[in-house]
Amino acid sequence: MDLLPVILTIITASTPLLLAATGELITEKSGVLNLGVEGMMLIGAIAAFATAVSTGSALLAILAGAFSGALVASIFAVLTLIFLANQVATGLALTIFGVGLSALIGSNFVGVALEPLPKLNVDGLSTIPILGKILFNHDVLVYLSFGMIFLVGWFLSKTRAGLILRAVGESHDSAHALGYSIITVRYLAVIFGGFMSGLGGSYLSLVYTPLWAENMTAGRGWIALALVVFGTWRAGRVAFGAYLFGTITILQLHVQGWGINIASQFMTMLPYIATIVVLVLISRDKGRIRMNAPQCIGKPFHPSK
Asked: pLDDT value at position 20?
């Protein structure tokens, strides 16, 4: 059995999950629960694909996908932080909005093929046997996902700004009493979450399956949400969870090729079954959730109250 193609496929399948979950981690650490990750990923996917087809520029496509996700996230931020709309209901509405709008925009791009993003071959390193292919033969978004999860972990644990963000998520009243702008901090966190979700969607349409298909995220936004809980709101654990779920996702592509007789329908369901099982197991430990979850997550704040 040649494990190299399997490992490379795992990295490819895990990258959109890691990008989206990294953004949602920052959002939730600020005390905001945005369930619209799926919708933002879809908007990012179609924006990136349409830009790539129209301009032929990979850089513009990536930026279009990321900033489209951030733009949609700003709608959520205004509704929930300024007008104090219910975060759960608004997030669900955002997903529905993203599904519908991406399908409308993408109707003109169905069946259009696209060259995937080029690999960044590092001279002298990409030719190293086995490790060269695994570590030094990927596109820019894979390396960006590695870098962003590292930076987010460092930001949350080692910087003053990260401490302020965590303080806002733990007790917005106390942070407000100390003079911090809760709305500004949370607004920036939500925008960053949308930016990263847009990047995750861009990866799907530019690399993973370089074409446009309606609802192509196929539930990955929901898995990214579950990964933040699975990782107990810690960057390193979120990264581990992304690659664990990425491994489960690609099993359906390889198991039957290995001669294991399992129904393909079951293998397709496996990532979502795993998500449900993980959430059920985590929910049994109430103390662990209370200890790690931001205490003000999902709670509205208004400076006049």
From this structure: 97
Report how far residue 40's alpha carbon sits from residue 21's, in angstroms, rounded to the nearest whole number.
12
Q: Which residue has the higher pLDDT, 68 or 292?
A: 68
Q: Tell me the C-alpha to C-alpha distance, in Å, between residue 115 and each of 56, 58, 108, 112, 119.
A: 10, 10, 18, 10, 12
Please calculate the CA angle 187-189-195 and round it to the nearest 5 degrees: 105
Structure tokens given for 68? 């489209």
CATH domain 3-292 topology: ABC transporter involved in vitamin B12 uptake, BtuC (1.10.3470)
**pLDDT, tens digit, for every residue of 208-226?**
989 999 999 989 999 999 9
Q: How far is 74 from 61, CA to CA, in rounded Å?
A: 20
pTM above 0.85, yes or no: yes
Domain boundaries, the chain: 3-292
